[in-house]
Amino acid sequence: MSKRLTCNVVVVGAGMVGAACALYAGRAGLDVILVDRGPVAGGTTGAGEGNLLVSDKEPGPELDLALLSGRLWGELAQEFGEAVEYESKGGVVVASSPDGLAALERFAQGQRAAGVVAEPVAGDGLYDLEPHLAPGLPGAVHYPQDAQVMPALAAAHLLRASGARLLTGHTVTDVLRAPDGAVRGVRTDKGDIHAPAVINAAGTWGGELAALAGVRLPVLPRRGFVLVTEPLPRRVRHKVYAADYVADVASDSAALQTSPVVEGTAAGPILIGASRERVGFDRTFSLPVVRALAAGATRLFPFLERVRAMRSYLGFRPYLPDHLPAVGTDPRVPGLYHACGHEGAGIGLATGTAHLIAQTLTAKTPDLDLTPFRPDRFAAEAM
Amino acid sequence: MRTPLELADAQPGPAFTVTLDDREIEVLPGRTVAAALWAAGVTSWRSTRGQGRPRGVFCGIGICFDCLVTVNDRPNQRACLVPLRPGDAIRTQEGTGHDD
Amino acid sequence: MTDPNRSGAVPHLVVIGAGPAGLAASVAAAACGVRVTLVDSAGEAGGQFYRRPAPGLRARRPQALHHQWRTWERLKDGLDRYVRAGCVRHLTEHHVWCVERRGEPDRGFTVHALLGPEQEGAAEVRADAVLLATGGYEKVLPFPGWTLPGVVSAGGAQAMLKGALVVSGRTAVVAGTGPLLLPVATGLAAAGVEIAALVESADPKAFVRQSRALAAQPGKVAEGAGYAARLLRHRARLLARHTIVEAHGTERLEAVTVAALDASGRVRPGSERRVPCDTLAVGHGMLPHTDLADTLGCRLDGPAVHVDDEQRTDVPGVWAAGETTGIGGSALSLAEGHIAGCSAAARLRGTEPDPGAWAAAARVRARLRAFSAALDSVYAPPVHWTEQVTDDTVVCRCEEVTGGAIREAVAELGAGDPRTVKLLTRAGMGWCQGRMCGPAVAGLAGCELAPSRRPFARPVPLGILARAGEMDHQ
């Protein structure tokens, strides 16, 4: 069956970023169609923990985007809070040695200058914040702005509220372009959709969508595992992670990195991350990786030794070589916008990204300078 | 009327005593928590985390985890798998099974 | 697989599961001269089919709850002989949570298990090859009231009876569909339970349509007829083309509503009747356990592990036999286990197996696979079973997710498959990891049942997971 649809904006990708783009574009008065070859939240969104973090970001454009996004999430929480399991729980970054603590405090100082609330926590105070942490830890930094949502629910509810027409099970096979090169819609396996603007929110597959439009965007997958425990009463109150995590997030290494990230959820289970490795789209279960996650988590929280892991899942975080997302219009293809490559921070950065895209679509001056996120910034590199 | 024990001509050794919360129950050697509770006329020993509804044996072979129970202070044991020993303390379980 | 030509070492096969398939495989492989470790979660060999009363109950007539007892005795004798000779090691109460394929340089497999009923200790067994005989479990589709205490799976009622010589009440209804219902009802009746009704949704006319395939197995048909005759002697009511509409009770089961099905598989209005009972044993067929195979990367065909004529999976060094490769009953499991054991042993010893050596088992396998395919087309839940799932019916028993929540996720939130339904509703995220609600969620979402990935075949304490792979191996 072939049908032709028309709208103002086609969003490709029904994950968190696509859903947020649909919401913000819709609220800016645009008529939006959202397409995805799978269901809502079927990709990276469905395989993440739902981090809305400022704590792991060093001063710079990504932190600015995270702070903007955090404010916008706070607004959305008024509207969707419970349905998306929004919790402004705060993060606690734990140092494992006095040297580590000194480095962490230096890092936090820089963040404070950029607008982050980062409160030093001495050894004693740490156990008031997290009574079940391993004894003898030197200290931590508390980040009250860190929050969490349940990512699949967030994507689904934002999408429903957006009023966008949702076409799941539609695979985009081409980006339609006018003779002058400008975008005029997308072709799907179930028909064409005509629109003067196409937003690439295809996450890990963002590079492939860009290629359909004839441009290069080097999005690569970075595999991450998450462990999920049996349901428990609330014993881990914040998002708690070891200070090493920040170094891992910023790392360029292809090798496996794991640093414990532990948090409770509204539903009861504790989530344990975070591993990062560059192995392409390999979906093979890796016992050594989840074993390292379990070892890290039980070191931070010894009570977890006897708590049972019920499942583990993996996802592919889409990243670009400089670890910044691609956000904004693509100067190479008029009408093509990118909103992808957020790596492990896509849930958190979705709101700011979508807000900036909506401002661009409606010819407003974006709240942040989009230069660092320019999608054509890799063009000079060899293919 | 024939009983299952008669059907298989079972000649178990003497029963022993365990506790279910505050009451004592007689148990035949070899029986699991679930079997002992069924034999004592008890069909539910857990209430669910969401609605607080009663649950007991469902699959009977350790797959469904509906029969979770606390045995000797270990929460979330599958009653259909765990055999009883004299003096064991079975506690009905609420919610996650973890107090606090 | 370890280099079979490596000098000195007798190759080591680990068989997982000591039911009919695993026992037949272990005996066959040991007879061919490989070292076998049989790893099983139960305290005694036999699996679900040959589950026997716990030794402490000292049953003198365990065969009263079984048929094909002589087959069991032969299997058990074979196992005992090889265990005594030191060719087979039988590890009981080992609950395997993961089989790990080790990388270079040593290759091979590590079988990770939890010990005892508490499952708080750990064991690891290294193997040159593994043979998965992990069996199956029962599928039960939801209906209002199915979470009430007193409602048990048909196989669960049977397991409690066979293993512990205990029943949950005095008056039972046995319901659902499939060849398990008759033996369950007959067993309960023999144990003194009044069978108020046996409710089977299949249409007797369907048996006639499949008469040729079914008649090819006269023994099996006679077995069914025998059960039916015994049940009728207990004055049980047989209601074919009927279904359970609802289970009633507040704190436990008090009655069920049974209704007739019309030609299209819908409940015939006005046909409902209430049957008082304190036990409902209900089941809608079986599903294979495929978690270990899936995590190893073995190809699945629908819900079952794919195997070739030698019972090899597509992962080198991994064989599978019995219900895990498709539901077909104990006789088929025995044949598949025998073939798998012979094939694995030959290949571990570096020789090409001779299919002629298992020709008889291969003929049995072909016949019984055809028979079970015919049974599959006869025994089916009502076509429109989802209509019985009201919006407030709990579908996911663990997380208490209702039919209404699942329908909302599909219709309004964009869920399109069981995985996204799970993400949006928590259906399948609880203790059983969707084993119970999987078929129902797929049905309500309008999809085929696809096995969800479960890297941990059982919940595993994080402390054990953190040290996995560090144990000393014998």
Secondary structure elements and pairings:
The complex is a heterotrimer of chains A (383), B (100) and C (474).
Chain A: E1 5-6, E2 9-12, H1 16-27, E3 32-36, E4 51-52, H2 61-80, E5 91-95, H3 98-113, E6 119-122, H4 123-129, E7 139-143, E8 147-148, H5 151-162, E9 165-168, E10 172-177, E11 183-188, E12 191-194, E13 197-200, H6 206-212, E14 220-229, E15 239-242, H7 244-249, E16 257-264, E17 270-276, H8 287-300, E18 308-319, E19 326-329, E20 336-340, H9 346-361
Parallel strand pairs in A: 1-12, 2-3, 2-13, 3-9, 5-15, 13-20
Antiparallel strand pairs in A: 4-8, 5-7, 6-7, 10-11, 11-12, 14-17, 14-18, 15-16, 16-17, 19-20
Chain B: H1 4-7, E1 16-20, E2 23-27, H2 33-39, E3 46-47, E4 54-55, E5 68-71, E6 74-78, E7 89-91, E8 93-94
Parallel strand pairs in B: 1-7, 3-8
Antiparallel strand pairs in B: 1-2, 3-4, 5-6, 5-7
Chain C: E1 12-16, H1 20-31, E2 35-39, H2 69-84, E3 88-91, E4 94-101, E5 109-115, E6 121-127, E7 129-132, E8 136-138, E9 151-153, H3 154-164, E10 171-176, H4 181-190, E11 194-200, H5 204-209, H6 211-215, H7 218-233, E12 238-240, E13 242-248, E14 255-260, E15 273-276, E16 279-283, E17 286-288, H8 291-296, E18 300-301, E19 304-305, E20 318-320, H9 330-348, H10 359-378, E21 394-396, E22 401-402, H11 403-411, H12 418-425, H13 438-445, E23 460-461, H14 462-466
Parallel strand pairs in C: 1-2, 1-7, 2-3, 7-20, 9-16, 10-11, 10-16, 11-12
Antiparallel strand pairs in C: 4-5, 5-6, 8-17, 13-14, 14-15, 18-19, 21-22
Helix pairs in contact in C: 1-2, 1-9, 3-4, 4-7, 9-10, 11-12
Gap between N and C termini of chain B: 47 Å
CATH superfamily of chain B: 2Fe-2S iron-sulphur cluster binding domain, sarcosine oxidase, alpha subunit, N-terminal domain
Tally of individual domains of chain A: 2
Q: Uncertain regions of chain B: pLDDT < 50 for 5+ in a row?
A: none
Shape assignment of chain A: globular
Q: Can you name the CATH architecture of chain B? A: Roll
Into which percentage range does the β-strand content of chain B fall?
A: 25-35%
Order of helices and strands of chain B: HEEHEEEEEE
Question: Whole-Å distance between the termini of chain A?
Answer: 37 Å
Please give the largest β-sheet of chain B: 5 strands, mixed
Mean pLDDT of chain B: 95
- Mean pLDDT of chain A comes to 93
Q: What is the helix content of chain A?
A: 25-40%
Domain FAD/NAD(P)-binding (chain C): 12-325
Protein name (chain C): FAD-dependent oxidoreductase
GO molecular function, one term (chain C): oxidoreductase activity
Domain BFD-like [2Fe-2S]-binding (chain C): 394-443
